[in-house]
Amino acid sequence: MFQYIWNNAPMLMRLMLEHMQIVLISVSLGVLVSLVITFIIYTLPFSKEPLMIVLRILYTIPSLAFFAFLIPFLGIGFKNAVVVLSVYTLFFLVNSFLNGLYHVDEAVLDAAKAVGYTPRERFISIQLPLALPDIVTGIRLASVSTIGITCIAYTIGAGGLGSILFEGMRQSAYPKILTGSFLVIVLNIFTNTILLKVSQMITKKLYT
Question: Is the dihedral of CA 26, 27, 28, 31 positive or negative?
Fold first, then answer.
């Protein structure tokens, strides 16, 4: 495996960067959509149950079926992969965002309301900053999950480390299979470690 990595380092680096790009864009888009959904649920509590049911159902759709379903609308490749992967992040993210908001002290919100903050201003200026540890935890879980699912996006021509894994399986080339698996694990560990450190730093800053 290590000989294969040494001999193909430039190509492997390109695939790893492709993989990271897909993950980064997918999670970022998921965060933006999740913030909107979270705001809707928080301001309209009756919408929580139906929206969470929809998100749960979307998360349980098999990835290959989801990719295939969107081909007539988005074609194959990068765009299809990003949309599907973004949808998969929503259940993790909205859950974590809501947990963070519900943990904000009611006394703080009452004080903000008393000085004239609107619901939107309270949400953006007070609740989101105080909910950051839970938000980062959600982003961490979504990122780690997305790194794995992104491998399957190779089947629709999105690139990434999945190309090494699937080529290795087709060719019964164990160095490729081991290399692809190893790099995905490394990327997962790296991402998880960085975001865990960020979460710990935010928590320490908020409570010291």
Answer: positive
Amino acid identity, position 75: G
Q: Do 53 and 202 touch, CB atoms closer than 8 A?
A: no
**For residue 143, which of 37, 13, 16, 24 has the smallest C-alpha distance?**
24
Encode pLDDT of 75-94 as tens digits: 999 999 999 999 999 998 99
CA atoms within 13 A on the CB side of 99: 12
Q: How many whole angstroms separate alpha carbon 104 and alpha carbon 113?
A: 14
User: Is the pLDDT score of 109 beyond 80?
Assistant: no
Q: What is the H or E stretch that residue 28 is in?
A: helix 9-43
Q: How far apart are CA 28 and CA 48, in angstroms?
A: 22
Q: Report the 3 state secondary structure along 99-149.
A: HHHHCCCHHHHHHHHHCCCCHHHHHHHHHHHHCHHHHHHHHHHHHHHHHHH
Give the 3-state secondary structure of 169-196: HHHCCHHHHHHHHHHHHHHHHHHHHHHH
Residue 170: CB atoms within 10 Å: 9
Within the chain, what is the greatest distance between any pair of CA atoms?
67
Nearest one of 81, 79, 70, 86 to 32, comparing CA atoms: 86
Give dist(CA 152, CA 138) in Å, integer: 22
Cβ distance 195 to 147 under 8 Å?
Answer: no
